[in-house]
Amino acid sequence: MTENQTLPRPEATGSFLVAALYHFARFDRFESVQKPLQAFCDENGIKGTLLIAREGINGTVAGTDGAIAKLLAHLRAMPEFSGLEHKESRASKMPFVRMKVKLKKEIVTMGVEDIDPNRIVGTYVDPKDWNALISDPETILIDTRNDYETAIGIFKGAVDPNTKTFREFPDWVRNNAGLHNKPKIAMYCTGGIRCEKATAFMKQEGFEDVYHLKGGILKYLEEVPQEESLWEGACFVFDERVSVEHGLKEGNHKLCHACRNPITAEEVTSEKYEEGVSCSNCYDSRTEEDRLRYRQRQLQIALAKKRGQKHIGG
């Protein structure tokens, strides 16, 4: 993809354009870029999160079409990110509360030293070729996301590591000798960044035929027709939309603001669900003191809404 190219717009509609992006590159000057990049986003009404580190950039942002186009051009004008790719979807309302540009040690935290996708990485597989790979009986398919994400959607036949964080993934790999039973390893994640780093790790661990879905689930849901899809369920996204489905249409999940887990319409009817306070996923692991604190927070959110304001803590 060249600097001036953009991805085709998904069929979903909405007032705000959401851009998910990441790029691994040697970015030694990342600390000096933080404040100017924050100011650029604030001046253009862009909200979301951008993580910058010595290994590159990662994030999801939302704004008007023009504002997002300006940001992408601004980033690609930096020599380190001239080859930056992104994925687009739409939101009916602004899916973020604020804009944050954060300095990090890693743009996606695995916690393993010397993992460099610029040096060694698995083979990219385009969405149109993904079904053939994962249907091959010689392939082990691994979801590199966390348990709250896999709970609402997963590729047919995928192995779910049931990890709480990406930091747990290396130990899960090292403790699963069965991963050596088949010659091919295929991995995927939401937008491509975790599985890209995971393939670098797997290659470093001695696995040879390692593949990952280019553009992640988001790109697959955008490009692959639903009638041909091997994806089951919805895809969790890290913003107020909570989930997206085929064609990148907004899903029907809500977010429990007590535990940050996605919940279905059925779970909302549970006696353990109280908006902003608890759901069936977290009720038994929280104390009454916790719930009292959450209720006080929820009251402040309701009061702010009544005044026509956005409660930042919400």
From TrEMBL:
Record-linked InterPro entries: Rhodanese-like_dom, Rhodanese-like_dom_sf, TrhO, TRHO_N
Role played: Catalyzes oxygen-dependent 5-hydroxyuridine (ho5U) modification at position 34 in tRNAs.
UniProt keywords, alphabetically: Oxidoreductase, tRNA processing
Descriptive protein name: tRNA uridine(34) hydroxylase
Species of provenance: Neorhizobium huautlense
Family note: Belongs to the TrhO family.
Annotated SMART domains: RHOD
Gene3D superfamilies: 3.30.70.100, Rhodanese-like domain (3.40.250.10)
Enzyme Commission code(s) on record: 1.14.-.-
Domain Rhodanese: 135-229
Reactions catalysed: uridine(34) in tRNA + AH2 + O2 = 5-hydroxyuridine(34) in tRNA + A + H2O
